[in-house]
Design goal:
This protein is 27% helix and 21% strand. The chain is α/β, with parallel strands linked by helices. Belongs to the GMC oxidoreductase family.
Amino acid sequence: MSDTTFDYVIIGAGTAGCLLANRLSADPKVRVLLLEAGHKDDYHWIHIPVGYLYCIGNPRTDWLFKTEPDAGLNGRALRYPRGKTLGGSSSINGMIYMRGQARDYDQWAALTGDPAWRWDQCLPYFRKHEDHHKGADDLHGAGGEWRVERQRLRWDILDAFAQAAQEAGVPATDDFNRGSNEGVGYFEVNQRSGWRWNTAKAFLRPTCYGRANFEMWTNAHVQSLVVDREGDGALRCTGARVWTGSAVVQVEAEREVILCAGSIGSPQLLQLSGIGPGELLQRHGIPVRHELPGVGENLQDHLQIRAVFKVQGVETLNTLANSWVGKARIGLQYLLTRSGPMSMAPSQLGAFTRSTPDQPWPNVEYHVQPLSLDAFGEPLHSFPAFTASVCNLNPTSRGSVRIRSPRFDEPPAIAPNYLATPEDRQVAADSLRLTRRIVQQPALQKYRPEEWRPGVQYQTDEELARLAGDIATTIFHPVGTTRMGRDDDPMAVLDSRLRVRGVDGLRVVDAGAMPTITSGNTNSPTLMLAEKAAEWIVRDAARSAG
């Protein structure tokens, strides 16, 4: 720790924090400190794609959060993984490259009143850091830090599901990232030659490590922000108090503190610092520095409903991985070719479609896997099977993240409030019917699919919605807990340039800033958001110096 005063202090070396550290430290005159509560990303299972199985639920790489018991899940609580290592959740996630739909960003522009969030204004910032395997075109970039590749495997059972989806009216696609992701095909992934490509590899190594103006502290857990009142009465964030494992060190930011701790960590840290709903803070004995009722509210997530089908006459991972011969074959294939099941993302085949024909746009996403198990982390079933997980892309249910105490090391209460609205329960029931319709198509019948979960005895809307609560789980896409919005929106935490309302020198740049969840996986939209923020931060600094 060479010094404690920097131009920028970035809290959280996850998806957004790594990109911001790279962009801001590109100016050699600017000193940047990147703080990460977790370890370096030197755990070997981070880098082998199937290693997510050993990273989720592992205190070396995961915050080990759990949700509150949820009424929509019939009283169940869920494991809620969030990355706690360099690269953040990009080190433990599903590696799926997905932007969402153009209408998502047009909606952000409408909600914030800022045309900078329109799809056509966001697309250049996706392309800026992209290194797409097909090369550059009007919609994709090449030569950037964020590698996008095809998966290095196929499964007969997944090919059959894709054909069945087409027979049910879902068109084939080879690119989910052109503004409309409707269709069925294999996901593209953030990998390089069969290895996971996380944001620490992409944006920190080797670039930032070679810069004299860049400093990074790992195992550095921020206790609270430092918020002072200036001579004119305005509040300003001037730094942070950091627990290093042996002492509390106060760091100072002469320009900005940039909070990139994610949709769970960022609202928690704001609340611990006296910024948030006044009643909540007072209940825990925290002085209210600035009342912002939206901090920790508006939590949105994708809930996946996992339907399992037994099959016959086709290989699945259940049968392959449940024998020593199969395991040896899997290991040898990866060792020799960096392909096969060890190179697998958690989901390989995707589909975006409408839960019912009257939906105005694709409103559900499938993650289809050639395997089945009772719950994540449990053993694979002994019988051959596949899982067709389907999620509502645009849930209307809203949850919250709220501190339980003034202790920085106590996890917050995470209450997603799944399936809380009639609309979400209806989409859940319709989604299960749609899954059945796809599986009944001719392309899958040679494998004699048999619905094992939830079971064909459940048919009514009420039964299916209740069963969705029994078998559904998070797909790890929390957003919205520090959302941006218009000046006249009392629940907006940030302005449209991601600045915390009423506190100078403080931004939140992570998925919490999203006012509504994107129609797909959320990692790459978070990178785009950070890319735009980096440009605004540099521009604001130049204007101030000016």
